[in-house]
TrEMBL record:
InterPro entries: DUF429 (IPR007362). This is DUF429 domain-containing protein. It comes from Catellatospora chokoriensis. It comes from the Bacteria.
Length: 248
């Protein structure tokens, strides 16, 4: 099996891509690229068994309805005063709330945080994949699944705090060491240095590991009664088993 992980950014300069090759005994990083353009992303994802993208695949359905109503001048408020709960309903998707409840960790809002710019790029990427014959099922059932590396690390018992940006390379190095100890069967090959110096590269590897979990069915399921909503908003693949379960 070949899994791909994408740490997506609004532009290619901070976009990273990892390719893992799986055998009966573990996995090896086949390639780890930074500064990845759309053409490379499409080709690599198309040639993978499963790809994990670290970016929301959709927007909150309530937010979409809110914007449409506002544009049409037909917005109906829930009462005389709007509440935090009302605003949160516009800011967070069903999967965001689910993950927060499961791991006690917040998720960025695709409708009100800067990650929205990256989500625009992700929407374009989904359209390009569809044109290439690889349409994206936002529930994760197809060739692409949405991932959240911090949540995966949390589920695997690895502390995902304070490793972002170049100011925190020491913490990132410790996290890489923790990953190596927790998954000795993962061969970083010649890319360990890249993981230790770039959180984008490291997150791409975690995204590829999470894609493997999703491919094996080792992630949280959504309530079937919410399938229509998830198909529009997207669903984060949250691992349910330890890293070692990925070796099967």
């Amino acid at each position: 099996m070949r899994t791909t992980g994408v740490d997506l950014s609004a532009g290619p300069e901070n976009t990273a891509l990892a390719i893992l090759e799986w055998t009966a005994t573990g996995a090896r990083v086949h390639a780890l690229l930074r500064g990845v353009d759309d053409t490379t992303l499409i080709q690599t994802i198309s040639n993978s068994d499963k790809a994990g993208i670290d970016c929301p695949l959709g927007w909150p359905e309530k937010f979409r309805s809110f914007v449409n109503a506002h544009q049409a001048g037909e917005l109906v408020l829930p009462g005389q005063y709007v509440s935090k709960e009302w605003r949160d309903g516009l800011a967070f998707r069903h999967t965001d709330v689910f993950v927060r409840e499961k791991i006690g960790r917040g998720v960025l809002s695709v409708s009100s945080d800067r990650i929205g710019r990256t989500a625009m790029q992700c929407a374009a990427l989904q359209a390009m994949l569809a044109s290439a014959g690889r349409p994206v099922d936002r529930t994760g059932a197809g060739p692409v699944v949405e991932v959240y590396p911090a949540a995966s690390l949390h589920r695997w018992g690895l502390r995902p705090d304070g490793y972002k940006t170049s100011r925190n390379v020491a913490v990132l190095g410790e996290l890489v060491e923790s990953l190596r100890n927790a998954a000795p069967w993962l061969d970083l090959a010649g890319y360990e240095s890249a993981c230790r110096t770039s959180d984008h590269a490291f997150d791409a590897v975690i995204a590829a590991l999470t894609a493997r979990a999703a491919a094996l069915g080792l992630t949280e399921d959504f309530d079937p009664s919410r399938s229509d909503l998830v198909a529009v908003e997207g669903w984060i693949a949250l691992p349910t088993y330890s890293l070692d379960a990925l070796k099967q």
